[in-house]
Amino acid sequence: MEAVIMYFLVALIIVCVFAIGYIYVYNYFQTFIIRLNEAEAFIDTTLRKRFDLLNKSIHIIENHCDKEEKVLPAISKLRSQKLNNFDLDRQLYEAINEFEKYKNLIPELNEDDAFLKIDLALFESEAEIVAARKYYNDIISDYNKLVRNFPSNIVAIVSKYKEKPYFDGKNMYDDDTNDFKL
Q: What is this structure's pTM?
């Protein structure tokens, strides 16, 4: 009878150790998920700020251009689309390149205070988005390591956590396979 109680206590201790380990790793995942959400929110805010700046610049550029010319059509196109941050970032870079084209083609724009303020704010937002991308990608790198490495991958499988792509759209692998899912 004492042997049965002893085996039961040993089994209970082992189950408790595994449960504590699972809870610890699960909470570690939750910390990364919270940090990822915060980084995504900051990226989203910065991208929306850039979109608003480019949107405001349309009227300023139109005042200095031929009225028949469609100014910043990439921004006009974005108004009606629902994009994720990855796609919005790519589209905004196209629009910023177009913005720069107008800046270089129309010298009067460089004398317009409102245009110069927008240009400066876009320049400052570039530094913000680069820093946010780096922070996000650093978190993603650590998160993906947890998803792949033993023993935390057991918690990932049970909790259905999948690897996430880097913000720049590239995955962690050197080849061109897309072995990860969002």
A: 0.77
| Per-residue pLDDT of the chain in tens (182 residues, 90 and over written 9) | 788 999 999 999 999 999 999 999 999 999 999 999 999 999 999 999 999 999 898 888 888 876 666 777 777 777 777 888 888 888 888 889 888 988 888 888 888 899 999 999 999 999 999 999 999 999 999 999 999 999 999 999 999 999 999 987 444 343 343 343 33
Collapse the DSSP code of 32 into the 3-class scheme (helix H, G, I; strand E, B; otherwise coil) and give the result. helix
Q: What 3-state DSSP class applies to 150?
A: coil
For the CA atoms of 82, 142, 145, 34, the dihedral, rounded to the nearest 10 degrees, stands at: -60
CA angle 120, 97, 38 (to 5 degrees): 65
Domain boundaries, the chain: 2-159
CATH of domain 2-159: 1.20.1440.20
